[in-house]
Fold this protein.
Amino acid sequence: MSRPRPESTPPEVGTVAPDFTLRNQNNSDVTLSAFQGKAPALLIFYPFAFSRICTGELRELRGGLATYTAAGVEVVAISTDPTYALKAYAEAEGYRFTLLSDFWPHGAVAQAYGVFNDKAGMAVRGTFLVDIAGTVAFAEVNGPGQARDQSAWRRAAEAANQTA
């Protein structure tokens, strides 16, 4: 059974993932709970579209997307950029995964996941794998300027596939 958690901290493994609805790069609503019972979701919070480290991380994700697809995991990248910027970013980089805008209310979902930097007005690098029951199965938060090692994400996605 999932445990409740304080609102200001990142959700820990075994807790219920905060539900949300955000607009994607095509201006369509995406709701986390819509994946329940269907597919795990890998939530990747990142500071800004078109920034050096974020673009490097998402390019690596793009290159390894087949791993997540084969595991049945929906990949969802979230920033506080507006949908129009995310559309341009996805087209420029050839991203074939969902980019979500946490633009308004500004950073509300990042705040719910404990990964919002109030002073900078951006999400920090937080990664969460939400299983098909809506529970956090993997959680990792990295400091500003630190690129993430995605090997742990791949292992978590493959493990989620084996338990689904």
Remarks:
- The chain has one domain: 21-163.
- The chain has five helices and nine strands.
